[in-house]
Amino acid sequence: MPSGQGIHLPDEIVEFIVGWLYELPRHRTPDSQDHRSPDLKRQIDLWAFCAVSRQWYRVGLRHLYRCPALWENNSFALFMRTVKGASPDLGSKVMILNLQKLQHQSSPSQTARLISWTKKGLRSFFAPRVSFATNCLAPLSKCNNITMLDLSLVGGRSFSFSRLKKAICSLPKISTLRLPISVPITDPNDSTGQWPSSLWNMHIGGLLIPTVMLSFQWPPNISCLTVSGCLDLNPEVLESLLGNTQLRDSLKSLTLRPDNRYIFDDSSAILYEMAALYHLEIPVDLMYPLCILPSSFDSLPIRHLVLSKPYDEEFWKSASNPDDNSFKNRIAEDIYEALDEGESLSNIWTLGVDPKYKPWACEHQQDGIEAAIIHHLDDFLDEELDEMLFEEMGIYWASG
């Protein structure tokens, strides 16, 4: 081949290469001297790919702008200058806009402009803590293709919940919404109005007022709820939240994070009123306050139980003394008994456990619990098992 003549590949091959490069895992290792984030490494790799030739630039451009890393050095300012009035329309190629790691690189007006420039192709938006305000809601309401909206880190009280909901109601494709914990819902009427029918997954936290939560109007098709960063999740709050008629009858998946505060000064059996609940994720030390253990009520409908890190981590560590297994022995015995027919966990098919906080003392106990779970599967039809699409049956290690 003559010197200087480039190798031309079909666009399909180049597309395959850049797709592989985009999805390539990039992990930080503890002993690595490279402190760049995986997202920044991906951005650098894609930039180098696009520099190979005009063909590779043309094919790789949409991947380069698909999920920009904007928090390193002055990358945010450079990106703003690049997409402003760019030809071709580079902003429309952005599908994932993550501004959560920004500190003071942006302002509310800059965030609003950036949302406006990227609204055409935007699918997922992660709002920054300090530079998202009321003026961002108008351009946000025009992001007709957005499916995931994360406002969880937004600080201050720069807008009301009613104004936020008005903007969200204009998003026809949104499926997942993480509400800001800094914006309280203080009036039951704040939730009136029609939520998008596509919205089924919500995250809520901050200040939850029992009387408001009891009558709160949830999206008509909500089936998945995560409670995180709640300022006070005592039994009254949780029971008013889950006692809401919509959630009580239709909620299929519930996650209670360990970062909620003041969880339980008393026990609650509210889970036994959740008729459709098949997925439950809770801190491992909440099995007793939630009356899952010891089994003394009817069986729960739960198929998939995940036990995450404990809410009271210090107590768990002190009680789990390796020289005295009585604490974990009692928990293991209660779990095993709860798996019997008609008991609280008799419908469980899969159990996820944080390996650092195993609720048993030895492998023999683990094997017995797993055998009891697998035994449940014999009572169900293959069609029902296939419908759940669980990748793991029995016990598996859940990420911490």
Automatic annotation (TrEMBL):
Organism ancestry: Eukaryota, Fungi, Dikarya, Ascomycota, Pezizomycotina
Protein known as: F-box domain-containing protein
Domain of life according to the entry: Eukaryota
Species assigned in the record: Penicillium cinerascens
